[in-house]
Amino acid sequence: MTKREIKTLLIGLDGATYDLLDPLVEEGIMPNLGKIMKEGARGILKSTIHPLTPPAWTTMTTGRTPGNHGVFDFIRVDRSGSKPNYTLATSADVMVPTIWQIADREGLRATTLNFPVNFPAKPINGVVIPGYVPWSYLGRAIHPRPVFKMLKEKGVFKASEMSTDWQHERKAVQGLGENQLEDWVNFHIVREKRWQDILLTLMEEEPCELMAVLFDGVDRIQHLCYHLIDRETRDQYQTEDAKKTTELALQYYRDVDNYIAQMIEKAGPQAQVMIVSDHGFTRSGSRIFYANTWLEQKGWLDWIEGTPMDDQGRVALDENTEASTLIDWETTKAYALSSSSNAIFIRQSNAPGEPGVAPADYEAFRDKMIEALYDLKDPDTGKPVIKHVFKREDAFPGAYTDRAPDITLMLHDYSFLSVLRADAPIKDRQVPYATHHPDGIFVATGPGFKKETALDDMYIADVAPTAIYSLGLSVPSDMEGKVCTAAYDDAYLAENALTYADVEALKGDADMSALDAEAQEQIKERLKSLGYL
Amino acid sequence: MANISYDDAYGVLKEIFEDLEDDLDSDGGELAADSKLIDLGMESISLVYLVSELQQHYGLGDALFRKMREEDKLLVDMSVGDIINSVVELGSKASA
Ligand SMILES: [Zn+2]
């Protein structure tokens, strides 16, 4: 058997933004990325409406918008019972095929490392190590089994150093004390090294045409340390702890830069490489919106007796207690369940007398809430708090709109809301924090890609069809993104005709019609009208 | 879907814990039916992943989570025997 060559290498940097990368390149901290960005094609990659890791990466790797792939948050909310319940979103919630599955279907091999909502692994010819799996389950999560054994034997698999520690993670969402930030950055330095070792080992032992890896320390570090990384602000923090953290964080980017060079080198000169982020990043404002507290003031939510008031600027509880346990489900009509989703759910009563809003009153109720949200001003500054309120049918049209929250908020400073109880709906943040921004990155390099080219803004759904085209396959006609032909040189496009595969023939059930050019235009228009493109 | 036997479900669970044995620093001994899952060395969050895997393995959709919710059972309270019996019960319902 001839050894398989890597055709397409997809490098994910969760939350990477040009706002930090460009200055880091200028400072000489990321010379390899600098060279690639200068010599290759680069552009802004617009994230999903609500730029959040699970829906955004799922759109990136399926070419479908959340309304059609079914993932909206880290959790999947089930509203069928008498009160809302939720579980972690899993691969079973991804309702459309990923690029890895498509490659597999076409007889190619694919490897995917550390991507969210990939557990339990959907079996493919290749390797799946899902992301966001707690360390004590990660070993079991690897597909196929012999690869797990091989990685253990080679000594590159170290579960406790590679994986998500959820207790740690929950704390980190709240911000850490300055003296804890060093540990946080160090943890991610070690962690990315582990993933890099695994990737390089797999490139050698299990070569695949499509290889994809996600480094998510970028996101985790930026949430807590953006102010210490950003050249504009880092000099304002001069304690020993702060200076040490800055040094370590810069070391982290240096490492990632090296890893990028190593993996491109290892992939070989024939590989087309795309470096992408699921969303960008920006500093949060100084205030926190306590959505459930606001709903309580409006008379739409009740807390159960004894629910404590948050006075520490937290967005969620850090113990194993979920926000849903604080809410009185006898009376509550609307609620936020997770900080990450920035969403408010409206409860519809199943029968007269049951809690919630009667279905006939739903539209009016929701409109009233939206109006009130737009009217909401920060009493300290007089400025509006909410920039956009998205109705689910506008933001997430598709086969799975009904799984989406009723409304999704974009705050003026792009912050995540708090689900906790407080003595006022808008309060001060207590430690510096950074948040997701809609503008991610897309950088392409390798044979066939244009040189020294600035691309127009792309949409995150464009990456999947571009990856499929890069593999030499026909692009499934139901993908909502389109191949980024602007990134390819003319000779390559002429030699490699772009073709489409009729997915109806593959699927059997005709629940969704293929998107023609007109429908794609409509989606773009809708995103524009929502202020998103 | 075929019936699921207690022994089969036990075998699946056993294999899972064998794979994790090195990471969990467990001795890989027998899984006693009355052992609490949480006492086998995992973080509580991993139990959610365990249930997801059992659901996928037996093609149960999210029936196992639903069943636990309906019965108001918490994962941290469940024993090895409880989880196996739940899987067996769902298997017999689905094939009935
Ligand atoms: Zn992300």
From TrEMBL, chain A:
UniProt superkingdom = Bacteria
Q: Any idea which GO molecular function terms this record carries?
A: hydrolase activity
Q: What is this protein called?
A: Phosphodiesterase/nucleotide pyrophosphatase
Q: Which Pfam families match?
A: Phosphodiest (PF01663)
Record SUPFAM superfamilies:
Alkaline phosphatase-like
PANTHER family per UniProt: BIS(5'-ADENOSYL)-TRIPHOSPHATASE, ECTONUCLEOTIDE PYROPHOSPHATASE/PHOSPHODIESTERASE
TrEMBL record, chain B:
Domain (Carrier): give its ranges: 20-60
The protein's matches in InterPro entries, at most eight in alphabetical order, are given as: ACP-like_sf (IPR036736), PP-bd_ACP (IPR009081)
Residue stretches in coiled coil: none
Q: Pfam families given for it?
A: PP-binding
| UniProt superkingdom | Bacteria
Protein name per UniProt? Carrier domain-containing protein
